[in-house]
Write a structure and sequence with these properties.
Elements: E1 8-13, H1 20-27, E2 34-36, E3 40-41, E4 56-57, H2 60-68, E5 72-78, E6 81-86, H3 87-95, E7 99-103, H4 106-116, E8 120-126, H5 130-140, H6 145-158, E9 167-170, H7 174-189, H8 194-205
Parallel strand pairs: 1-7, 1-8, 2-7, 3-4, 8-9
Antiparallel strand pairs: 3-6, 5-6
The structure holds adenosine-5'-diphosphate (ADP) and guanosine-5'-monophosphate (5GP).
Length: about 210
């Protein structure tokens, strides 16, 4: 049983092409109600991506306005584009007691940890090897050779941050990775905020 109802954060990171979207989709029926944080980005939409569902796609100017206005919980430059998490919807979902899932890079994870460590759980998702990652990126057919090369180079750096995460999920088969993800999501929900903990102790002591 969870003590309070303040909501919790689950950060997922991992190289582009690791299978984060695939795993969330495969597990979504089993992890109960959650809010997926839709990021804002200046990168161009891929074929099939929908504004307001996959990302909010904006111009560099609009993104920089949002930075100035303090609208982001965190933001970073990844592969030469801006990506950021808007503060308002996350705050509202947490107030409603929801599990909020972020798909953000390793820089974003560090920033969320710095701000909301007590309610944050994190998992790093990766295919078994770099070679397999490259194969999946090529088979996904959504990026040019140049973009894939940049993502592979970035992945070689990102993997070094694997030790900063609570859990590692090796995405070998989708079914197995989704099963592990369900366990991690359940653990994330049980994480207590300090505020809830203190209120519980006062209540428990009577
Ligand atoms: P991410 O969201 O991390 O960028 P995706 O979920 O888009 O990654 O997955 C990248 C590609 O790899 C997709 O084409 C997806 O269908 C494929 N994929 C994901 N998991 C597996 C797996 N376990 N085995 C084979 N292909 C996979
Ligand atoms: P993609 O272009 O493949 O959708 O995402 C590229 C990278 O940006 C991934 O590592 C993804 O996790 C990260 N990313 C997506 N949204 C955000 C965000 O809001 N903040 C940060 N810091 N990274 C993000």
């Amino acid at each position: 049983m969870k003590i309070g109802n303040k909501g919790a954060i689950l950060v997922l990171s991992g190289p582009s092409g690791a299978g984060k979207s695939t795993i969330i989709n495969a597990a979504s029926d089993e992890i109960g109600e959650y809010y997926f944080s839709i990021s804002t980005t200046t990168r161009a939409p891929r074929v099939g991506e929908v504004h307001g569902k996959d990302y909010f796609f904006v111009t560099k100017e609009a993104f920089e306005e949002d930075i100035k206005a303090g609208n982001f919980l965190e933001y970073a430059q990844v592969h030469g584009n801006y990506y950021g998490t808007s503060l308002k919807p996350v705050r509202e979902a947490l107030e409603e007691g929801k599990l909020v899932i972020f798909d953000i890079d390793v820089q974003g994870h560090r920033l969320v940890r710095a701000k909301m460590n007590d309610i944050t759980t994190s998992a790093f998702i990766t295919p078994p090897t770099l070679k397999e990652l490259e194969k999946r990126l090529r088979e996904r057919c959504t990026d040019t050779d140049e973009v894939i090369t940049r993502r592979i180079e970035n992945a070689k750096e990102e993997i070094r941050a694997v030790g900063e995460y609570d859990f590692t999920i090796i995405n070998d088969t989708i079914a197995e990775a989704a099963k592990e993800f369900v366990i991690v999501a359940k653990a994330a929900r049980l994480k207590q905020s300090r505020e809830d903990e203190e209120a519980f102790i006062r209540h428990w002591l009577g």
